[in-house]
Design goal:
alpha/beta, Rossmann fold, 17 helices, about 40% helix
Amino acid sequence: MTQADELLRLAADLRAEARPDLTFMEVCGTHTMAIARYGLRELLPDGMRLVSGPGCPVCVTAIADLDRVVALARLPEVTMATFGDLIRVPASRTTLAAERAAGADVRVVYSARDAVQIAADEPDRQVVFAGIGFETTAPTIAASLLEARARGLTNFSALSMHKTMPPPLKALLELGETPIGGFLLPGHVSVITGTACYEFLARDYGVAGVVAGFEPLDVMRALLRLVRQTRPAIEIEYGRAVRPEGNVVAQRLMEQVFAPSDADWRGLGVIPGSGLALRPEYADADAALRFPVELEPPLEPAGCRCGEVLRGVTDPADCALFGARCTPEDPVGACMVSSEGACAARYRFRGIDD
C-alpha cells in the first residue's frame, strides 16, 4: 500500500468514527508546517477542526524579551549570536536585522556551541547568545554554558528566553476560549521530556493527548488515536523516537543549569513556572544580569492577531493583515516570520491548506 493509499484509508476511518464537533490542537511548529504542507486539513471529516497552538518558539517570545535582545545588541562591546529566525522578528520598534544593518555586531549561528567558539576566537568581545526554544533546545544551551566554563571563557553569556511546554497547555484549558478535545503533543519536545509531564491533561481536565511524529501518516494516525480513545489518556504514536521516561541525561543537564521561572508568552501573558532561568551559580553567565539595560514600554504591532492565532482562537487567514500588509517577505507579526509560524505556514501553502 502506498503512502497516499494509507492516508486515504486513515481519512476514511476518521470520517466513519469521528464526531463532527471535535476540535484538536497541535502545539508544535513542525506539526503546523507539516499539516499545511501536505494539506491534511482537507482530509478531515466535515466539522472536525485542527487548530494551531503556542508551539513556535519565535512566535511565543514576548515583545519585551525581543526589546531586551535588541538593547543588548546595541551595546558596543557585545556580539549578539542567535538563530536565524530571531533576526527578522519585529521587536517594538526595530529588528535585529535592522540593528545589524546599522552597525550592531549580530551573527547567525547554527548552535550555541558556535557562539562559544566565537567567544574563544574573539576574547575582546562579549558574546551573548540569545537562547529561545522549548525543552528541545534547552539542553544544548546548558551544555554550551558548561563548555564555556570548562574552557575558562569569561566573555560568553546567555540570555535565556527558554520556555517549557506543559504550562501553556494548562493555561489554554483554563482560559477555555477554544473547546479543545485533544492535543497533538510535540514530538521533539517529548523526546526530551517523556510523557509524564502531560498526564495532568487527562487526569485533571479530561483532555486526551497523543505524541505524534512529523510525517503525514504520523499526524493522521495520531488523530485517529485521539478519536478512538474511550477515556482520555496520553499516548505515544511517535514510538520510534519517544519513550515514556524521555531523555534522562538531557533532563539532568537542564536541571543542573536551569531552574523554573515565570515567563511571558505572546498571547498568553505571564505563566508561572513556564520559563527556564539560569540558576544563581551561573549568574556570571546570565546576560540579563551582566548587562542591565533600560527598556521602553513594549509596543505590540497594530492590527496583528498573532496572539489570538497562538491560542487557537483565530485562523491566520482571518487576520486583516494576512497576505496583504503582512507577508513572509515583509512580516508585521512573529507568526509570519518563523518557518514554524502558523501564519507563515498558511501563507506558504495557502493553495493546499485552504
